[in-house]
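Can anyone check this?
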Amino acid sequence: MNDIFRAILARRDERAHGALDALACPYAEAARLFEDPPEKRSDAEGIRTPFARDSDRVIHSRAYSRYIDKTQVFSFVENDHITHRVLHVQFVSRIGRTVGRALGLNEDLIEAIALGHDIGHAPFGHLGERVLDQICRERRIGCFYHNVQSVRCLHEIENYGKGINLTVQTLDGILCHNGEDLQNGFGPNRAKTADMFLDEYARSLLDEGVGVNLIPMTLEACVVRMADVIAYIGRDVEDAIQIGLIKRGDLPPAVVDMFGSDNSMIIDTLVNDLLENSFGRDEVRFSDRVFEAFTELRDFNYKNIYTNRRTTQEHRKVERIISILFDGYAAEMDMGFHEHTVFAHYCQKFGKKYIQQNGKRAIIDFLAGMTDDYLINQFRAAYMPDSSGYKISESHTR
């Protein structure tokens, strides 16, 4: 390492450590499950902190590029301004870093967790997640949670089964971000080790309920979990208004009194309240009055947006498509891949060891990695006849 790099690293470390609160995750604690190969190490690598390196590895992954065509809530709406998964993770990252900076936490770690937290989401959002989970249970494959699949994707599937070797802190934050059962106040388990993380991850793939409401090892991961719900709660309202599903005047009066009626006001109120009630504490939480209004808004969204008939009217078709594709790929696997299909090509790229170790779970991995359009196109290619177009015989042209 030359003198210029030493000076750059000294400046980086001075800035980084000087900004961190005592409750933050220090850069020195960053730990990878495997040592990076020599070609991954250089003076240039040292310019980035370990967690910043995690962010770069996530955004350069093949799975990250598929975020752009995975929908958030509204899957069958032709509107370029509706939120897709790639926008959502950016919102979570920005909100998380804002909160982390104010609390003196490790922004690089927050960003890495935020960018990777939904990378294992199935096509068609939580609908796809529910269908894959049902298939897993019925076929005794285990269970399926998008947060667990995110870790599986980055740790075991990317790079054709080698993974991208993220830090334990980042992987743990991704595993523990799932807060579907909303509760106020999240604090870390600072006694948690890499072995404990691996045990939770393994059990979450197999045992029902384990993958929900896990406790992370860092306060940064707690911030991302709260930033996740802050990012979607008001944005889903805006999207629903955009497509005419609801009107702004439909929002409950108590919610409007607390937050205002648009996403900007909702985010501002939630972030400010979170900071006021979390500063200097080893947890992140809202005040009781804000959390009560937040819960009412979430209930409103479930009733009027997420379970609205216009939102769910195509769900049965998607369920059938996913199930039919799974059965078709399972038959391919049982017959030994006699035909050269996209699934056969996928399995060939990963090799026999991957198939032997994972069995039908490999089909779940393949389906979960699809974008919405790719899923539909694969169904069409496999089960719908191709048209050769209109043909006019020469005799009919004279």
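Reply from J.R.: I decoded it. Residues 315-381 form one domain.
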